[in-house]
Amino acid sequence: MSDFKQVLSSLTPEIYTNMKRAIELGKWPDGRVLTAEQRELCMQAVIAYEHDNLPAEQHTGYIPPKPHSHCGEAGDNDPNTETPLKWQ
User: Fold this and answer.
1) Looking at the domain assignment, is residue 68 inside a domain?
2) Which of 41, 42, 58, 83 could hold 19 in an S-S bridge, CB 3.0 to 4.6 Å?
3) Rounded Cα–Cα distance for residues 4 and 7 (Å)
4) d(CA 79, CA 24)
5) pLDDT tens digits along 3-55
6) Is there a domain that residue 71 lies in?
7) Are 73 and 54 contacting, i.e. CB atoms less than 8 angstroms apart?
């Protein structure tokens, strides 16, 4: 198992929260500044943690899908209703 996978398997909700906060502020809870490499690794860890432990709606950067609008006539909201093809 790689070192990164070992770290991911040991993440707790508290560590996840601290990493997320460190990314937001650019520094660790003790005030030390994150390096570019630390920020990148923290981002990867946060994304992986969210993927494994949180529903999609709670992932960082989640954008809810827009309702689908099909090409039917106005007021035709049932996608299971067959609509005759109109040749023009």
Assistant:
1) no
2) 42
3) 5
4) 43
5) 878 878 888 999 999 999 999 999 999 999 999 999 999 999 999 999 888 99
6) no
7) no
